Every structure is written in structure tokens, then in C-alpha cells.
Amino acid sequence: MGNAHPLSRVAPAAALDVAALRAQFPVLQQSIHGHALAYLDNAATTHMPVAVLQAMRRFEECDRANIHRGVHTLSQRATDDFEAARATVKRFIGAGPAHEVVFTSGTTESLNTIAQGLWAGGPKTAWLRPDDEIIVSGLEHHANLIPWQHAAQATGAQLRVLRPDREGRLHVADLQRLLSACTRVFAVTAGANATGERPAYEEMLQLASEAGALTVLDAAQAASHAVPDLSRLACDFMAFSGHKMYGPMGTGVLAGRRAALERLHPLRLGGDMVEWVRYDSAAWAELPARLEGGTPNVGGAVGLAAAADFIDQVGRAAIDAHVHALRAQAVAGLAAIEGLTVLAPHATSSALVSFVATDVHPHDIGTLLDERGIAVRTGHHCAQPLIDHLGRGPTTRASFALYNTAEEVDRLVAAVAHALKVLR
Q1: Residue ending a domain, choose from 312, 331, 350
Q2: Which of 10, 110, 241, 327 is the most exposed place for a label (fewest CB within 10 A)?
Q3: How are beta strands 133-137 and 158-162 bridged, if at all?
Q4: Residue 10 lies in a domain
Q5: Residues 234 and 357 in one domain
Q6: Which residue of the set 62, 182, 235, 382 is catalytic?
């Protein structure tokens, strides 16, 4: 990691030295409207520590070149950097010999690659056909819903929704009733970005796999603090983004079983994803190259891998405990405000909290919070069907990372109470 800031001051296990960690994030060392920045929009994008910035800068300054097939030194070094990043990510997610990692631009591209790749090759090779069924959970981000809507429309398959209850919970028994011999795909999130609900995805993936379906896990909200272990999951495909785990924007991962990835028709056709090409035909390269057409974001992959190393150096369990504690503090404080409702207060393993206030629009709340230097997210959070299902309308969402503090949560609660007083 070069001259990255040391993590020796970070306390192990159950406690983080948050002051030492915050010092490693340059963007946090600023004021907004005269107030210290309290960045509570981490479910949308986390910030990058110096270790990640330095890793990316070192690549761009020393090794930048196009990868694969180049005989000159820079190309060979860039190729080594790229493949070393892949190896790091494999270790990070517990990928075994039967798994492969494909670099993408983010969770959205990864999920589109899966959904479209299962039918785009034509009826002879398509996994999805008329009268097949696709089951998608009702907690999903639009990126794990719309591609499946499109796949169903394109193939004649039926899209079925595993609906949550009134409190936003998914139930294994409901999935058991939906699964059938026609189920070809089951897609679920590891953590709902709109409510924080953490479904029992391990058991659900296992049930769907036993029913003969390909299984898809959106791990975007888990990668920063509760990384799923592929070696222990009945998971064919998993997707996540670098920018939600202290890495760069425009980077992501499509990981999964090689046998499942080989079913996907590549969507990016062009250079470096072919074995040979003639004027009238071509043959795809082996994985992972066949799904990485064109010049990849090599510096981004290096940064994503550095972010994975950073998380492991800090400690996954410590990060998880820290964000859960902040979430619990926020839920308790916000729930005590008259006329305010917290969504999914039971979701104790979440790193975010969403809430609505009677007769007050979340955009107005968010604007007044920003005036006090507090950054939150407002709206439907790209999960409008779930928000509509819960009957809550748009919400305000605060989400937490390893660099957030209890004092920032206190500021959030006080600022929300003040905003409601002003707006009412």
C-alpha cells in the first residue's frame, strides 16, 4: 500500500479509534455552511481514505498502460496490478476455486450483465424462456428489479415478487410458496437500501438453489461492513460497488460460480473479450475476459482492491458493530420526536435509518439539515415500489460509516427536531 496512513492507532475488535480513522479521509476535513461536515449519506456513496487515493495515484503515475497482450514493461506492470486487484477481491469475498470475479462499473452494470446475459444470446442458448418464472424480492433497488422486468418482457417469462409484510420484512415461508419447478431465477438484496431490512438471504438462496433456480445477491449495501462469504452461500451471482465500500466511483464487481457466469452472453462486444475473430464470426475468450470487453478501469480496480484491504485492516466485525451502534442511537433519538416515524426500526443489523414526518416533505428536511452541515439522502432511494408498498411516501435517510461519530448522530437528531419545528 506504499506510504498509506498506518492503522496502528485503530483499536481492535469492538471499538474503533474514529478520530484516527477520520484523519485518513481528506474530504471530511472541511466545513459546510460554517459547520463541520457530518456526512451521513454513506448508503449512496462512501468517501475514500488516503490509502485508496495513494494506491490509485501510484498506478496512474507509475504503471498506467493498457493491459493484456502488451510486451512493454508498463503494460506488463499494469496487467499485474489488475490481476492482483482481482486476487484481492476474491479473498475479500471468500471466492473459491469454483468462483470468478469480473470487474464492472458498479452494481447496476453487474446486475444488468446477469439479467440480460441470461437471454441475449438467443433462444438456443437462453436460460430464460416463455413460461419460466423469475422471483425478485420486494425490497430491491431499481437496479435489481428493472433488468428483471426487461428480461421477463423479452423472453415471455413471468416476473413474480416476494412481497414484504407491512413492516418491510421478508419471510422464508412466503418464498417457499412462490418457488416452483418453473422458477429459473431468484434475486434478492443483502440489505435494503431504502429501509435497512436485512433479509435471511442465506436461507432464501439455499431454498431457491435447491429448487433449481439461479440465485442472485445484490450485496451493494453489505460490502462496506458485512461482506457476504461466497464460499458459504448457495449463490450463483453476487454484485457490489466500489463507491459504497470506501473505493472509487465507476467500479464494481460481478462475482459468482464459473459455471453460472459461463451461461451469460457477453454484453460488451469488442476488444480483449474474444479468442479469435473473422469477418463473419468470433469466439469468446475464457472467463473473466469474455465479460470484460474493452479497456477496463484498471486504476479503479486497484482502488477497489485497496479499499477491500483497508476494510480488513480496520476489521469487519469492528466496523459492523460501530455502524450498528450508531444506527441504534439514531433510531432511539428520532423515534422520540413527535410526529416522526422510523421505517423498519427492527432492522438492528442495518447501517442506515429512514424516516418520515407528518406533513413535512423530506426534501425540506434535507435542505435544513444541509444548512447545519449534515448530509443525508431524501426521496425514494431508487426503491419506489417498496416505499409505495409501505405506504410512506418519500423518506429522509441517514446512513453510517466507520468514520461517523455518536456526536454526529446527536447533531442529526437535534437538527431534525429543529427542522420540524421550523417547517411546521
Answers
A1: 312
A2: 10
A3: parallel
A4: no
A5: no
A6: 382
Which residues have a Cβ under 8 Å from the Cβ of 362 and sit 6 or more positions away? 356, 378, 379, 394, 395, 396
The total of structural domains in the chain comes to: 2
Q: Is 382 a catalytic residue?
A: yes
> According to the model, what pLDDT value does residue 424 have?
87
Query: Is 46 within the bounds of a domain?
Result: no
204: domain CATH number? 3.40.640.10
- The answer to whether residues 366 and 410 touch, using CB atoms and an 8 Å cutoff, is no
pLDDT digits (tens, 9 = 90+) for 83-129: 999 999 999 999 999 999 999 999 999 999 999 999 998 887 889 99
pLDDT in tens, 137-165: 999 999 999 999 999 999 999 999 999 99
User: Against a cut of 0.70, is the pTM above it?
Assistant: yes
11 located within any domain: no
Cα–Cα distance, 291 to 273 (Å, whole number): 7
Q: Are residues 375 and 306 in the same domain?
A: no
Domain boundary among 312, 344, 366: 312
Cell reading at 105: 462499473
Confidence band (pLDDT; 50, 70, 90) for 11?
A: very low
